[in-house]
Design brief:
Radius of gyration: 17 Å
Largest sheet: 5 strands, mixed, barrel
Mean pLDDT: 94
Strand order of the largest sheet: 5-9-8-6-10
Structural class: alpha/beta
CATH topology: Rossmann fold
Number of helices: 6
Distance between the termini: 9 Å
CATH class: Alpha Beta
Helix content: 25-40%
Bound molecules: adenine
Length: 242
């Protein structure tokens, strides 16, 4: 019997509402201001939750999924800014690994992003989940560009070209967002396999005619929906592959 129970985290309601609308037998448990929605999607057992934005919210969310719900895998869905010139708005990044770009103990001899006294700071996503995610993306929409790459996370929304270039040079990251590394870090500590799936909503700089006040909400909505559709298919494939 399949005993998997998949935790799905989105930072914003936008990122989880689509998935929640496909759930059956939903039971809601509230902890730390978050609603954990237990139920099934096409027979797969899931717990879907909106963590809120940023690394603290995301880390707390992972710990609750681990302790209270004993999830067997975690998938993070959402949007991200592109750090790779090959990634256009609407493209998908599947995490190879994730790093905290705002972890900075360089003053005491550590490289940027390295968490002092930890064995790992580039938290690796689960190979099996990466492969499944790749296959699902290919199946759902073979025309969409998918890249397996590095996610850099920090408690900052990046729109400045110089900051963007520093993140590329320092971390060789492919996209930037505000939760992934924290989820990855929490999964590493709790030994939970994870993958981050992000749709590109912006270029994380001030290039082109992109207006963050006007354009971002539109692209965010489309990208978040797109990503959620992929996660829904991934969950079903994952549950039937175990
Ligand atoms: N999420 C989506 N775009 C982002 C950006 N440019 N910086 C941080 N998080 C993001």
């Amino acid at each position: 019997m399949d005993m998997s129970r998949i935790g799905i985290i989105g930072a914003m309601e936008l990122e989880v509402e689509e998935l929640k609308s496909h759930m059956t037998d939903m039971k809601v448990t509230s902890r730390a201001g978050m609603d954990f929605c237990e139920g099934t999607i096409n027979g797969a057992q899931v717990v879907i939750v909106r963590s809120g934005v940023g690394k603290v919210n995301a880390a707390l969310c992972v710990q609750i999924l681990a302790d209270l719900f004993q999830v067997t895998q975690i998938i993070n869905t959402g949007v991200a800014g592109s750090l790779n010139s090959k990634l256009e708005i609407g493209d998908i990044v599947i995490s190879k690994d994730a790093v905290h770009h705002d972890m900075d103990a360089t003053a005491v001899g550590y490289k940027p992003g390295i968490v002092p006294q930890m064995a790992e700071s580039y938290f690796k996503a689960d190979e099996n989940l990466i492969e499944l995610a790749k296959r699902v993306c290919q199946k759902v929409n073979p025309d969409i560009h998918v890249l397996v790459g590095r996610v850099a996370s920090g408690d900052q929304f990046i729109t400045d070209k110089e900051v963007k270039n520093r993140l590329i040079a320092t971390f060789q990251a492919d996209c930037v967002e505000m939760e992934g590394a924290s989820i990855a870090h929490g999964c590493y500590l709790n030994q939970i396999p994870f993958v981050i799936l992000r749709a590109i909503s912006d270029k994380a700089d001030d290039s082109g005619n992109y207006d963050y006040q006007i354009d971002y909400p539109t692209f965010e909505k489309a990208a978040a929906k797109h990503c959620a559709q992929l996660v829904e298919k991934l969950v079903v494939d994952l549950a039937s592959s175990i």
